[in-house]
Amino acid sequence: MIEIKTSKLSNGEFNRGVFATRNITKGELLHEAPVIPYLNEDHEFIEKTILADYVYEYGANHTAILLGYGSLFNHSYTPNATYDINFKNHTFDFYAYTDICAGDEILINYNGEVDCDDPLWFMETDKE
């Protein structure tokens, strides 16, 4: 249902993104990404590495590295996918927020809410 391909949206070193290999229906589960959680106080070590750009908040006291395709979804303020944290299964569950056509890049809002337009750490913005 999904695959990793070169993305025109990613301006990172690897330029990767997650793409649909078939049409996907709104609400459909796209991916369950297992997590490796660590205490927020240990984030100072991760900040010294490239992994700092790929981690997610995981509850009040933890941050998580997502396995699988979880850290490869690119950002959009008009996403076609969203995610829920599944603490019971220790996964981030990614769902289609809209219908997605085969070949489309699957995008999430890095702010965690599909309609949140707060500026992000890697974007220069004039928003106030």
Helices and strands in order, then pairings?
Layout: E1 2-6, E2 16-20, E3 29-39, H1 43-46, E4 55-57, E5 62-66, E6 74-75, E7 81-86, E8 91-96, E9 105-108
Parallel strand pairs: 6-9
Antiparallel strand pairs: 1-2, 2-9, 3-5, 3-8, 4-5, 7-8
Pfam families: SET
Domain SET: 1-111
InterPro entries: SET7_MeTrfase, SET_dom, SET_dom_sf
Structural account:
The protein has 128 residues and is mainly beta. It has a single domain (2-108), classed as Beta Complex (Beta-clip-like). The chain contains one helix and nine strands; from the N terminus they run βββαββββββ. The chain has one helix at residues 43-46; strands at residues 2-6, 16-20, 29-39, 55-57, 62-66, 74-75, 81-86, 91-96, 105-108. The protein has a five-stranded antiparallel β-sheet, with no helix packed on it. Strands 1-2-9-6 form a four-stranded mixed β-sheet, with no helix packed on it. The longest helix is centred in the middle third of the chain and has 4 residues, at 43-46. It is globular. Residues 1-111 form the SET domain. It comes from Paenibacillus plantiphilus. InterPro entries: SET7_MeTrfase, SET_dom, SET_dom_sf. This is SET domain-containing protein.
